[in-house]
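Thread: quick sanity check before group meeting

JM: Hey all, I'm pulling together slides for Thursday and realized we never actually wrote out the predicted structure for the chain we discussed last week. Dropping the sequence here so it's in one place. If anyone has concerns about the input, flag it before I start.
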Amino acid sequence: MLGLLEHMKTMINLAVNSDPSEFTVTKTTGQPATYPIARVAMSVIDRRWQQFEAFFRQSVDVYSGNYTEPTILQRMQIISPEQHYPFREQLSARKRMMSMGGPFHTNNIRTLPGIFSAIIWRAITYRTEFSEAEKMLFVNIDDWNATVSKIPSAVTGYICNKAAYGSTNPGRSEKLVPVYWKQVQNLEWEAYCRREETTTFQDTMRLFSGRNDNPFPHLGLLGAFDLVVDLTYCSKAIHSLPTNMTVAECIFKINRGSMNGVMVLNGGNPSARNKRNKADVAICNATIGKAIEVMHNVIDDTKRADIIIDNILAENALLNMITPTTELVTAWTDNIFPNGGHVDNETNS
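JM (edit): ok, ran it. Output follows.
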């Protein structure tokens, strides 16, 4: 599906119009033409969007505690929220990192120890027992070394989860902390946070992902994106909120779970995401816009005014609506959650 505009050799500009189901394509002739976002029956796309709405509605019910017999999805969200729950700021790990002793607390995040510790969390200790039980803020490399020296070396995976973001990354390791400490001192982070000029999401993203180099090995584009999003949601934000197009560009470049969500909602198959084309950034942008619209409609129905809808939530919903778990993939491929998604017995959950 993605790459569907590739054959349009005459295209020089592509912009999303007010209708999220169409694109406006400007050809060399100067005559605009509308082109649908997928070459599949609209009934399929409509059904996928209904599935997305059902996913988000069930997620809101988990957020509100408004359920008695959990669906397959809701059970998965309760058991493994990092993988299946779209409200990232409600995750216990995220709340802990935002607390008084955490790196993202207002008193810490604009300091060198704060950003050093934030990088350690995202690049090494994310989704580990270490991040749940040990100290969260490290003044410097010596402080880190003193902390980990107390942990038996035989405890494999306690400090570093090599599959924290899904696929196993063999290079992800606590041995990289000295490299991170050296690199973080080159950021001039405290001066960056004091800048008078407007700092954008892209500016901060470049700090951690680099243009031509990799300043923080094995943090990766996805880890860098999540870190910069973390910084966006600090009580005193480091930078401005990203635009929909900025988030769309990140989804396109990272090319992971959120791109799978974009493909599914546009009638495609996630297995073909490596065939994407640069023009497909506009498809990502349109999908974010429509996802926000759908989520707003759900919020209006459920009267949950405390839930803030933005493009970051949209990206996370696109990520979490697709999962490697067989039951949920089957549900998405066929009909969403048969019989309302309720599980008849424990073996189906």
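AS: nice. The longest strand covers residues 22-26. Confidence is low (pLDDT under 50) at residues 1-39, 324-349.
JM: adding both to the slides.
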